[in-house]
Amino acid sequence: MTPHTVISAFRNCLALAAAGALVAQIPAAHAQWKPERAVEVVVFAAPGGGNDKSARVMHKIWTENKMLDAVVTNKVGGGGSLAYTYISQKTDDPHSIAIAQAGLVTNHITGRSPLHFTDLTPLAFVGSEPVGLAVRAESPYRDLRELVDSLKKDPQSLSISVGSTRGAINHFTMALLAKSAGIDPTRLKILVFGGGAESVTNLLGGHIDAMSQAINNAIPHHKAGKMRILALSTARRSPGLPDVPTFREQGFDVVIEGWTAFMGPKGLTPAQIAYWEELFSRTVQHPDWKKYLEFNSWEWGYRNSRDTADYLKKDYEVSKALLTELGMAK
Fold first, then answer.
1. If residue 61 lies in a helix (H) or strand (E), which one and from where to where?
2. How confident is the model at residue 195, as a pLDDT?
């Protein structure tokens, strides 16, 4: 079985799981532990970035409903490595947690960070955001097939931003698209910037041809008519973007999810983990969180600590196979 076959099979399983198996798993008993002081919620992106927005929506829910006393801290650098390393140094302290995305897994595989996801404690999986491939409104590419046709003629003909990190989910999306179209993914002209906001600025300014990004970066500009989202990485169309087709609809086998989880340091007790599971299981059910997901075309989901750990293990294996094929695994 080829790495691409393994990747496709696993991504399909993830899509099915997101559609059916991701149901809230409310802990049977309330946790006996609770925070004794304000909790620090660490975000690996600058204020205004996608995961920063997610963390602050949760913070708002916690504050307004008196669920948790917390502060949000931004620690930017290394594609998330700085934030994750900071949390890893808080061993046994349940008052410091971090929002995490795929970089937690891929940074270790590529050698960007010595930190393995098992060096932290998974607390909860809270949803997944699709990747969108977007061009500016003035682009000559009206649909995905036109863009792919150009890449087939010359993979270097288009400059494509994948945000702040090569070898992460935005880059994976372009690699899978290239493979599905019979193009060598290592030949694509991939660019990185400081983050999604910089990618947006460069795309709107006409300095790059396309961007593969977490969809929240493109939605406001798509709705304002300044960008055109050519495809979403979901298995089916998003209710929030009914006019945007999926990659698969257009004949390309690309289904991938940008998961978001919360992690704590090592050494947490079962009671402390149970507290965080109970808090996140309530938070993802809150109307404000669901409204945020709908606006940003996320897929709702929840996994407890153990199931999140299992999910990360599988994602690590799949990511390593693709990064090896891209020549980026250490």
1. helix 50-64
2. 75
Q: Could you read off the pLDDT of 227-251 as tens digits, one per residue? A: 999 999 999 998 889 999 999 999 9
Strand partners of residue 231: 133
Residues 6+ apart with CB under 8 A from 66: none
Dihedral angle, C-alpha 79, 80, 83, 86, nearest 10 °: -80
One-letter amino acid at 102 equals: A
Percent of the chain scoring above 70 in pLDDT: 91
The answer to whether 164 and 194 are in contact (CB under 8 A) is yes
- Tell whether pTM > 0.85: no
The tokens describing 112, both together, are 């960007």
CA distance 249 to 295: 22
| Widest pairwise Cα distance in the chain | 62
Cα distance between residue 206 and residue 136, in whole Å = 8
Alpha-carbon dihedral angle through residues 162, 116, 35, 310, given to the nearest 10 degrees: 90
Nearest to 95 by CA among 260, 279, 261, 259: 279
DSSP 3-state percent helix, strand, coil across the chain (nearest 5): 45, 20, 35
How crowded is residue 227: how many other Cβ atoms within 10 Å of its Cβ?
25
Residues 278, 95: contact at Cβ < 8 Å?
no
- Tokens 């606006």 found at: 295
Query: How many other C-beta atoms can be found within 10 angstroms of the C-beta atom of residue 118?
Result: 13
